[in-house]
Design brief:
This protein is about 40% helix and about 20% strand. It is built from six helices and ten strands. The strands form three sheets. Strands 6, 7, 8, 9 and 10 form a five-stranded antiparallel β-sheet that branches. The chain has a three-stranded antiparallel β-sheet with strand order 2-4-3. A hairpin with a 5-residue loop joins β3 and β4. The relative contact order is 0.08.
């Protein structure tokens, strides 16, 4: 054929080899190449020539059979400029309702070079478009991740600024979150009881101070007085001074001293004395 031949070449059905293959009960392989080998095995005994000398295509019929159409390879090589080649009609012995234009023998190794190039170009264009789309999506994800990172950074800076304003300066190495919880608990403890419910321990404290020996040299570290108990921690010079102070405070009519704790601490005598209220007037 010359270069002026039509792109779609249709020939009379007598120019082809035809066969109807009973494949209704044959298992269908998953791979197309295995399916073709199966069909070529079925058509080979029906061909008047060697299977290697022809090129065949197969179409499934509605009744479950498979229609085979083949042509000599030498004739197909003469049609290299055509886009497609097939029969213009089906033989009379084929009763299946198939469109003859679905048979195209210019496939595989007989595909026209310009068709093959067009298909390759189309596949390359699809790959390029896929690469561009992937790059755009990746860029979008990257920009969103950067925006989220900036947002988290601003949130962390704002949180640090809040901690700096509400927490006092401290050499503590605890995280600011734990320090804030500790400060909140401290404030809750100091504000737990209303002011009007606090007990007046002025009289009880005055009773203790009245019985404090005037000539006793003591350095008091802590004196906690409530409506039911008083705790004193003080340092004196000798054990005798500690005992004298414990006896003097125990003589108060409003308090009863418990067993004092006396120990040596850094060259001095530390007295820890706990007193219980006798329920007298406050």
């Amino acid at each position: 054929m010359n270069r002026d031949q039509p792109a779609d070449v249709r020939l009379q059905p007598e120019r082809f080899y035809w066969a109807v293959l009973d494949t209704s009960g044959s298992p269908r392989p998953l791979r197309p190449s295995s399916r073709r080998l199966q069909l070529e095995y079925l058509i080979e005994p029906l061909l008047p020539v060697a299977l290697e000398s022809v090129h065949a295509v197969f179409r499934s019929a509605p009744d479950g059979s498979t229609v085979a159409c083949a042509m000599d390879r030498e004739q197909l090589q003469e049609c290299s400029e055509a886009v497609s080649l097939g029969p213009d009609d089906l033989p009379e012995f084929i009763q299946s309702r198939l469109d003859p234009h679905t048979f195209d023998l210019l496939t595989g190794e007989f595909e026209a070079p310009h068709v093959r190039r067009s298909r390759s170009l189309w596949a390359l264009s699809c790959c390029a478009a896929l690469v561009v789309m992937t790059a755009v999506v990746a860029l979008g994800i990257h920009r969103r991740a950067m925006a989220e990172r900036d947002s988290l950074s601003r949130l962390a800076n704002a949180t640090s600024a809040v901690f700096a304003r509400v927490l006092p300066d401290s050499p503590s190495t605890q995280p600011p979150e734990l320090r804030l919880v500790s400060e909140r608990r401290t404030l809750e403890m100091t504000r737990r009881a209303p002011t009007d419910e606090l007990a007046d321990v002025g009289t009880a404290l005055a009773s203790l101070l009245e019985h404090w020996p005037e000539d006793l040299n003591a350095q008091t570290q802590s004196l906690v007085v409530t409506d039911s108990v008083a705790t004193l921690i003080t340092s004196v010079s000798t054990n005798e001074d500690a005992q004298r102070l414990a006896v003097a405070l125990d003589s108060s009519p409003l308090w009863r001293g418990l067993q004092p704790q006396i120990r040596q601490v850094r060259g001095a005598v530390q007295l820890t004395l706990r007193l219980e209220s006798l329920g007298g007037p406050r």
